[in-house]
Amino acid sequence: MAPSSSSGLTFKLHPLVMLNISDHFTRVKTQLNPPSSSCATGNIPAAVGATFPQNFRVYGCVIGAQRGRTVEIFNSFELVFDPTTDSLDRAFLEKKQELYQKVFPGFYILGWYSTGSEAHESDMHIHKALMDINESPVYVLLNPAINHAQKDLPVTVYESEFHVIDGIPQSIFVDASYTIETVEAERISVDHVAHLKPSDGGSAATQLAAHLTGIHSAIKMLNSRIRVLFQYLVAMQKGDIPCDDSLLRQGASLLRSLPAAHSEKFNDNFLMEYNDKLLMSYLAMITKCTSNMNEVVDKVKTAYAKKSRTGGSRIPFM
Amino acid sequence: MSSTENLITSIQGLSASSGDLSALHRILKGAEETLRADSDLQLSTLDQLDPSKHSLGYLYLLDVLTCGGPMSKEKASEVVLLIARFITSCDAEQIRLASDKFVSLCKGFKDRVLELEDPLRGVAPLLSAVRKVQVSTKRLTALHPDCLQLCLQAKCYKAGFSILSDDILEVDQPRDFYLYCYYGGMICIGQKKFQKALELLYNVVTAPMHSVNAIALEAYKKYVLVTLIHSGQFSVSLPKCASTAAQRHLKTWSIPYTEVGNCYNEGKISELQAVVVAHSSDFEKDNNLGLVKQAVSSLYKRNILRLTQKYLTLSLQDIANMVQLANAKEAEMHVLQMIQDGQIHALINQKDGMVRFLEDPEQYKTSEMIEVMDSVIQRTIGLSKNLIAMDESLSCDPLYLGKVGRERQRYDFGEDFDTVPQKFSM
User: Fold this and answer.
1) Residue B407 at interface with chain A, using a CB cutoff of 8 Å
2) Which residue among A69, A307, B121, B147 is buried most deeply as judged by most CB within 10 Å?
3) How far apart are CA B125 and CA B118, in angstroms?
């Protein structure tokens, strides 16, 4: 598979497509492998939870518009994969195509998508099948494996080209470069999705947590950078490193531009605000504690209270 | 003889790992009868064993040797020394396997120390014994009240106070709990930490009990006096969470104290002193006379405190008149003492003998305040965690679940309510 395509087409990918693909994948994954909490009753045999199907793929179609040399992929929809014929369900595809044509008249089927770590030979089969709808379909591949070290998006766009390999002309997948294109509405929704934490959906709590984590990481970074500068200056003072006057001048100007934060009034105000915040969290803690205590007392009363025949007895216990 | 020899060799052999220890424990339990019957067993046989490595075996032998009846003074002090050394050097893991024996051994130790009238010798060993028997710092053991009692007798309050700083969450025997709180309250009074004493005595007074017991009664008397000293007010009714038995009977047994309390509320020194003199024999019997005298002197403080709420400035002579002190000099001394203790904020102008009362100057702006708040918040978080754990354990309690199930069935309107079974078979 040659690394770059030579067709000269520029591809523009909308984030909606990526969100759709990842959502499709996550949905199917959770449906196939229900979360372990529901298996706690022990009725479901352990085998289901044990063999986590790692190597399933989802398939779908991407649609968009092509203007001149620019191919813009706007949207996508899911398709049914037929494992017997190893191809996509044609009737379903055509039905969906009709429906989408009615809603988005300008969009045509540009290609298909799937998930996985790399393109397989069998994908060419599907690719060829789509060639009668679009002479040169694109293949969008999303890698669902989460890699925290990776900075780029795990999305690759492939085109098919005829290359002569070992004397046999065959079509292979070639990597095509693409750019991300957003509309204002998409930007808002992507922003919203980016702030959602996977664990629980409570909006207020997660927003606060996200906000605080952001501030925390920012402060951490600031701290580490100041430390680097400080060590550098100390080394310069000790004479390990030759004095660099321009750097020293920059450092001095930076320090002078810091706000005057050492006055008595500032300390007073700062400490007072700090104490106020502490008092508020203390109050919140006490309220929470009191409500916990209330629950415990209710439970103890229910469990250990002597049942009175006359009713309306207020004697707690003993 | 030979069985003892066998026993000693097995102790020496099997004290290595936990599996061996449980086997050793079984052997020792079986051999206990033969040990007691063996009259040749002497203290010298203990020299063959090392208390820190062979703690379990040492414990059993020691128990057999020392649980006998009264012994002579020399033997008693020798035994006391032996036990003290054992307690300080024994291994906590091995001891916990036979904690009842250890507890009874320590109780015997305490009795002997009291017989010898030298309670100071027993304080340090018992302190370490408490720490070793405790499975966790939240659990009350039977040794806590004994240790506190020894500290009280020896008048070393600081040592006892170190035990009191743990928060107790689990109690095995209610009697231990009453005694612990009562002695703990007395130790705090000795240390003049009246707030903590009040908390502990309050725990005894409001603890659930079917019928009034002597400990609660004594604790109630001290509780009344300490409330007078600390907060300056007295209410005859007990808090609502006190048990019905306590509410009905405690007051009838402590009439002199309630009289003192009522008189205190009036605020007249002379009347209070008259009441105290009238019942002084009762107070003497309960050993509370010192506490009563402290309460009387605290009445002055309370009156001065009330003055700060009415007046901005007063002359020393006026203070003396209103509080019924002898002269201005005494008033000045009292006010000075209170300013030092932090109970009031005032400025004494010596030139014209005027006292100006001030507001609390604490602005809560300092970094020390931050530390105080931080520690308080951490404590509350810990408390919250404990409460949640208690809540969870209660939710799984079959008694609770049974009652809840019964309640739900009563409101079962439609078929879509799945009925909770009345009895849970675990």
Assistant:
1) yes
2) B147
3) 13
How many angstroms separate the CA of residue B157 from the nearest CA in chain A? 32
C-alpha distances in angstroms, B132 versus A67, B103, B137, B141, B403? 83, 11, 10, 10, 40
| Residue A30, strand partner residues | none
Provide, as residue numbers in chain B, all residues whose Cβ is less than 8 Å from the Cβ of A295.
391
pLDDT in tens, chain B (426 residues): 466 677 777 777 766 666 777 777 777 777 777 777 666 666 666 777 777 777 777 777 777 777 666 667 777 777 778 778 877 777 777 777 777 778 888 888 888 788 777 778 788 888 888 887 877 777 788 888 888 888 888 888 888 888 887 777 777 788 888 888 888 888 888 888 888 888 888 888 888 877 778 888 888 888 888 888 888 778 777 777 777 777 778 778 888 888 888 888 887 888 888 888 888 888 887 788 888 888 888 888 888 888 888 888 888 888 888 887 778 888 888 888 888 888 888 888 888 888 888 887 777 777 888 888 889 899 889 888 888 888 888 888 888 888 777 766 555 555 554 555 545 444
Distances, alpha carbon A198 to alpha carbons A24, A25, A31, A193, A194, in Å = 16, 15, 17, 10, 10
Work out whether the CA dihedral B241, B245, B248, B251 comes out positive or negative.
negative
Contacts of B395 in chain A (CB under 8 A): 299
User: 10 Å Cβ neighbour count for B404?
Assistant: 15
Q: What six digits make up the tokens of B317?
A: 């002579």
For B98, other C-beta atoms within 10 Å of its C-beta total 19
Is residue A74 a contact partner of residue A65, using CB atoms and an 8 Å limit?
yes
With an 8 Å Cβ cutoff, are A274 and B370 in contact? yes
Question: For residues B71 and B60, what is the distance between their CA atoms, to the nearest angstrom?
Answer: 19
Give A39's DSSP letter: G
Q: Cβ distance B109 to B122 under 8 Å?
A: yes
Task: Please list the residues that pair with A157 across neighbouring strands.
Answer: A140, A176
CB-defined contacts A:B, below 8 A: 71
Nearest CA to A23 out of A95, A115, A88, A90 is that of: A115
Cα–Cα dist B164/B86, whole Å = 24
Beta carbons of B24 and B56 less than 8 angstroms apart:
yes
Mutation for A interface: B248, B364, B374, most A CBs within 10 A: B364
Q: List C-alpha distances in Å: B116 to B72, B78, B81, B112, B230.
A: 10, 11, 12, 6, 37
* CATH of segment(s) A10-32+54-180: 3.40.140.10
Locate A105 and state its tokens: 């008249």
Domain boundaries, chain A: 10-32+54-180
Q: Is the ipTM of this complex over 0.85?
A: no
Can you tell me the distance from the alpha carbon of B228 to that of B241, in angstroms, rounded to the nearest whole number? 21
